[in-house]
Amino acid sequence: MTPGNILGTVKAYRVHLILKGFAPAMTKSELILKLAEMNPHLYQSHAEQIVDTIFEEITKALATGSRVELRGFGAFSVKQRKSRLGRNPRTGETVQVEDKKVPFFKIGKKMHERLNGIASDGKDDE
Amino acid sequence: MTTNHTITRADLSQAVYEQVGLSRNESADLVETVLEEVCRALERGEMVKISSFGTFQVRSKRQRIGRNPKTGEEVPILPRRVLTFRASNVLKERINHKEAAE
């Protein structure tokens, strides 16, 4: 088996796991544990407050219609969706779908480069 | 729908500084650490699930043939990894101000 073959098999297996819903995942509680581990002088409750505050601030900003831009990671914004006539897929019945706002995330340039193994030129002009 | 100020890392650090009571410098470093750990997990191909916020997931796209819309020329779009974010219902409801009794 050539190295290319092995890599292909590994990749196929990963894809299989993801499709099966077994993709390894990092949860908020794991993120908190990790933060506490990396900063032994912090109380666990502080680590928890820090992570909660970050996502709460992003949520609050989006709820007021603000954009959140985190260079090197990406940007969150809110998009407006117009009301429309939808259909209940089970009954086929027509229903009015009200206009609504939906959160949207766009990956940053640097993060895209990191995911795709492109060496960064140090600039980050998202 | 009033503020149109863009929130950045500095705002997140300020919030951590006010709410947790650590120094400004340390608050900024910790915000950075959290974001960096999220990025690292995604780089490893892990999903990142933040309850009541949403899920980040890296997906691999296969190569496909695209077209330059201006010239009509066919160009291959190389295989690449993209990042998707799926907002949780809690986040969607808060954005639409439909907060259920908490």
Put simply, the count of helices of chain B is 3
Fraction of residues in H or I helices of chain A: 40-55%
Question: Mean pLDDT of chain A, nearest integer?
Answer: 87
Main-sheet strand order of chain B equals 1-2-5
Structural description of this entry:
The complex is a heterodimer of chains A (126) and B (102). Chain A is of the alpha+beta class and 126 residues long. In chain A, 44% of the residues lie in helices and 24% in strands. Chain A has helices at residues 3-19, 28-38, 44-63, 109-115; strands spanning 25-27, 68-70, 74-81, 84-87, 94-97, 100-107. In chain A, helix 2 (28-38) crosses helix 3 (44-63). By secondary structure, chain B is an alpha+beta fold. Chain B has helices at 9-20, 24-43, 89-95; strands at 47-50, 54-61, 64-67, 74-77, 80-87. Chain B has a three-stranded antiparallel β-sheet with strand order 1-2-5. In chain B, a hairpin with a 3-residue loop joins strand 1 and strand 2. The longest helix of chain B is centred in the N-terminal third of the chain and has 20 residues, at 24-43. At the A-B interface, helix 1, strand 1, helix 2, helix 3 and strand 2 of A face helix 1, helix 2, strand 1, strand 2 and strand 5 of B.
Brief overview, please?
The complex is a heterodimer of chains A (126) and B (102). Chain A is 44% helix and 24% strand.
Task: Please specify the SSE layout and strand pairing.
The complex is a heterodimer of chains A (126) and B (102).
Chain A: H1 3-19, E1 25-27, H2 28-38, H3 44-63, E2 68-70, E3 74-81, E4 84-87, E5 94-97, E6 100-107, H4 109-115
Antiparallel strand pairs in A: 2-3, 3-6, 4-5
Helix pairs in contact in A: 2-3
Chain B: H1 9-20, H2 24-43, E1 47-50, E2 54-61, E3 64-67, E4 74-77, E5 80-87, H3 89-95
Antiparallel strand pairs in B: 1-2, 2-5, 3-4
Helix pairs in contact in B: 1-2
